[in-house]
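Components:
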Amino acid sequence: MATRRHFLKLGAGAGLAPAVALAQRKAKIVVIGGGFGGATAARTLKALQPSLQVTLVEPNPVYTSCPFSNSVLANLREIDQQQFRYDGIRGAGVTVAGTSATAVDADAKTVTLADGNSLSYDRLIISPGIDFDWKAIQGYDEAAAEKMPHAWKAGAQTVLLRRQLQAMDDGGLVVMSAPANPFRCPPGPYERASLIAYWLKIWKPKSKLLLLDAKDAFSKQRLFQNGWAELYPGLIEWVPLSQGGKVTAVDPATLTLTTEFGAHRAAVANVIPPQRAGAIAAQAGVADRTGWCPVEPVAFESTLRPNIHVLGDAAIMGGMPKSAFAANAQAKVCAAAIVKLLAGEKPQDPIVINTCYSLVAADYGISIAGVYRPNKGQLTDIPGAGGTSPLEAVGGLRGQEALYASSWFRTITAETFG
Amino acid sequence: MPRTLLPGLASMILLAGPATAADAPPGASSCTGCHAPKKVADSVIPRIAGRKASDIVAFMREYRSGTWPSSVMGRIAKGLDDQQTEAIAAWLAAQPE
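Structure:
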């Protein structure tokens, strides 16, 4: 009897009643979406607690990374350098279900798969990335995207836009359209404009780029605009919302983009439409009326459905932007928190960091960083931290940040997929 | 019966997993997004796992004050107080090099 008490005491001391320990070891985690958020979460869970049964649901056998896909448009990289398989994740002990999730039953805690199977879970992670709002811009539907690519999910669309740019006559007008906030990769449209300009300046020097914007300010704005003035004078024209930048309709037959102030006919048109969380989020009941997913700021558990965590672009992460770095960092925090929750413990309040590089030219990089912690139910910027690269670069900083950018890409893709 | 329980208990506690990994101090897990835990080809970003904790703390203080020039690290170091920085440094130092 004394030994038995001793046993119970020891169990409590380790923070685990025996029954909880058993349940924890056998726990099933399903992760929907194999991008920087989902893939990182799956393998981090396995690394933290190898006894967990972790299934990653991802229909594509190959992941094509959006970060650095703008460099593919500018012929600085090939699309296969953007592509990663799931072999490393399988090797880490994660079961990869090569199919898509069609339904989530939050009450029964099951996920229905397109192949007819169903998975039960103790905790579900949804990291589906974005879907496009095909009704937001009149005339811009999936068929129109074959004429006026968005290239905001990397892959065939990226290759299509690059082919169109290469086929364009010198002197042609490239028209881009950027959406209102929030959207995937806030500095992305401006990096894209920069790198297309970089390429045009070399190969089609009589051409111009018109960037129609549904907002009046954007990420790293002064750094980008200074870079454009320095490197591409007169080549890029940015039209903000207040000057008629919001595209309301398109005609794919004539490559015409219509704004509240007029119409622009393009030789090549790149329409980045408004976005929302990937469709499975709404199906699971974790997206709100904005189309994005509210979560609490410690384990990123949905505030709408229990036992479902949402990561990355799909989630409303307070002050954190929708970036690959953020998704990867959130995933590591979420995985550690889930291990704690399964053990019946309270996860600690996290500190989450974001770092995001953009290229203004092949050898000209700029960055933004932020440090975030929970505050009043949201991830909030820690005051005095974060911010962008200095406006005045000294000591070859822009070149150095371009090198950091490519080093970051190799590191994060190795951590996520390697 | 109590005797037979004891080995079961020992293995249960061991199997409960490496609590230390899930107990990384706040902020620590974000570092590996840039600072690779394992060697990555062609990266100019230094690896910091297994470095001396006192060195990491010294660098972070100099980044934070601007004494040592940096790109993003100064901006990140300003988000962490001394105690948080020391906890992260100790954890990084304990990771395999």
